[in-house]
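Input.
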Amino acid sequence: MLGAVSGRHPSPHRGSSVEFAEYRKYVPGDDLRRLDWRAYGRSDRFFVKEFEADTNLRCCLVLDTSGSMDFGSTGVSKLEYARRIAGTIGQLALQQGDAVGLTCLADGIVRNIPPRRNPSHLSAIFDVLEQARPHGQTTLPPVLHELAETISQRALVIVISDLFVEPEELRSCFQHLQFRKHDLAVFHLLDPQELKFEFRRPMRFLDMEGGPSIFAEPNEIAERYRKAIGGYLEALQEVVRESAVDYHRVSIDEAYEQVLIRFLIGRTRSKGVR
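Output.
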């Protein structure tokens, strides 16, 4: 069982339970009490019974609060959209008895709440989400490496970010988390203007994470921009595909309820702790 109490999720491990799962061949070191002597009588081979065990889930929400998360051309910023996703997942998890924690990051870990199952813990999660303010540069890769080492038990790690990081840097982070046996899901938040770049007049573009501003004529740079963002998304898609990450690209003009429905349906159709 993953965790200290039984829960509602099928465990990725076999254990003792009333629900039979499957037979497997006996190997030295197996508990002899689990041998099926009737199967031995029929086949003259040793087989061990395995049963389904239930587990409680540890959900670790990782929220990017860097300066770029303050951008939004649809009336809602990426950070506000991320708050809604994180808050809803946290509430759903705690309602079914799972442990939920939250880490806010910018130029380091800003706030960290360890996972707990207490229903009153939800108010602490909501308070931190409400107080989160976008500022500073993104240091997502170092923080993910740190979390991979400091989250002591296997967990579902959900990253909510605009992922303005080189895809190759993310590859090592994702692989590190999976090496530590964590289940990783990523919500990649993008504003429609970041994807379409439909600016019509000369304007000054500001780096919301502290870099220099650029004054440009959109018509002159639109083609190069779309090529650059296309290359970035293609490289990122290759990274998540090779790393087997549960990846969701989200345009923040889409209703977040629909995004979460797709996420939850996808989890129920896949294996492991969901």
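The chain has two domains: 9-55, 58-269.
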